[in-house]
Structure formats: C-alpha cells, structure tokens
C-alpha cells in the first residue's frame, strides 16, 4: 500500500510540474501618455492637456499554472509624460504657453493572466513606476501664433525635486501569442498616484501597444 501511495504521489507531482511553464522574453512598443491636472491647481483662464507619443522597451518573465492561469512580471523603461497648452493674460497682455513634461520612468508591471484560449489571454495587474528623471520644456508665444514672437525656455529644466518618485497605475490588458513565441499585446494603465509635491493633484495614465518574443519553457 505504501509503495502504491508513493507511486501515485510521484505521478501527481510529475503531472503538476509538467503543467507548469516558465518563459522569458523581451518586448517593446508605443506608449500614449497623458497627464491629468486637478482643476484646483489651475489658476489660468484656459487650459488643455495633450498626449505624448513615446515608447517603451524591456523584458519579462511569465509563469503558467496549468492551461488557464499564470502570472507575469516585467521590467520596462519608458519616457512618459504629457503636454500642456495654456492661454493666459497678465496686465491686458495675452500669451500662450506650451509645456512638455517628460518622466523618465522605470516600470515594474505585475499581473495575473487568464488564458481564454492557448493563444489569447487577458491580464489584470498594477504597474509600479519609479520616476528616475523629470524634465520640463516651455515655449511662450507672446503673439498668440504670430511668427517671430515665440520665446523658448531652457531645453531641459530639471523638475525632479518637485515630483514624487512612485507612480502606481492599475491596468487591464490583452495578449495574442503565436506558437513560435511572437506575441502582440495592449494594456491601459490608469495612474492613481499624485506626482506633484505642491498643491493640487497630478496623475499620469498611459496606453501601451507593442510586440515581443518569449522563449524557454519548463
């Protein structure tokens, strides 16, 4: 009986180990990044925000528990941020101020995955962003678009001391993988962390669409 139980236990462990798979990979793609500014911080007459079109690149590790569930961790770099376009007035002088903010961010996304089919999966998780650098570039147009009246500020103004380091962004995503290891994925990261050390709240959300390759297994 003991020998039979031992054989059964070894068989179950073998099936369990066979059902698990660990794969490593690399990925890169396009990021559509936006900054949301709390209205309480807006003391100008009009204000709008525009997205920054940028990129991301990095590596990943995926571990599957059977055919349906898995977890994935990643290490990515992306220069996130956004643009602000403001119309303002001072002493009856009207001007337009364009500002571009760039957060050089190290992203650590962690997610749980559900495999709808062998090739198609959805993921739910959170991206923990560490802001390594923060730059700002401002252009002031005193003539509201009149050529020759633009006054450009410093190319790279360091604002790292004014920015909080951690940017937490829960995300929902989907992935389609081919049998040769190539995959395509997309996810939306909703920023919830206040990145401003001053009054008012500033958040950074971003959409990622990319391609990658996974290799290895078991």
Architecture overview:
Residues 1-19 form the signal peptide. Residues 18-195 form the Outer membrane protein beta-barrel domain. Keywords: Signal. This is Porin family protein. InterPro entries: Beta-barrel_OMP_2, OMP/PagP_B-barrel. The chain has 218 residues and is mainly β. It has one domain (21-215): Porin (Beta Barrel). 8% of the residues lie in helices and 66% in strands. The chain has one helix and eleven strands. It has one helix at residues 2-19, and strands at 20-37, 46-50, 52-65, 69-90, 93-115, 120-141, 150-152, 157-158, 166-177, 182-189, 202-215. The chain has an eight-stranded antiparallel β-barrel with strand order 1-3-4-5-6-9-10-11. Strand 3 (52-65) and strand 4 form a beta hairpin. The longest helix has 18 residues, at 2-19. Residues 4-18 have low confidence and may be disordered.
